[in-house]
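Example pasted here:
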Amino acid sequence: MNRAGYVYVLTNPAMPGMVKVGMTERHPHLRAKELSAHTGVPSPFQVAWFAEVEVCAAVEAAVKVAMDRYRVNGRREFFSVTVPEAREAIERAAAGRLGRRVVPRPAGRFRRRGYARWGMGVVAARAALLLALALAALRWL
């Protein structure tokens, strides 16, 4: 899999001293939101740092090999390192593969393109309006 994407570092206040390192082809804030939705997570994940890379799977694999001795559990992507240490490992693993560096925005300010920028209330209101117009048009037939 030679796809561009992001390698990210997430933190969680309920897990002090640990970071989660992973990859996604979508925006890291969306991935953090997905992970935070699980019922076993007491507080939401926060995006501490991320980089856009040309080959995200290869960079993530190299980071996990380099930081393997700091793994909290051999079957999980959690490491007992600081955010700067994880960032350094990602930059080393990416070597010449780093795309433009991206500074994360606060999670509350991130919006996807399209309908998500309006919020679900606006989308629901527009859907209700379209339904009402369609029903009114059917009555005229």
In short: The chain has two domains: 5-110, 114-141. The chain is about 40% helix and 20% strand.
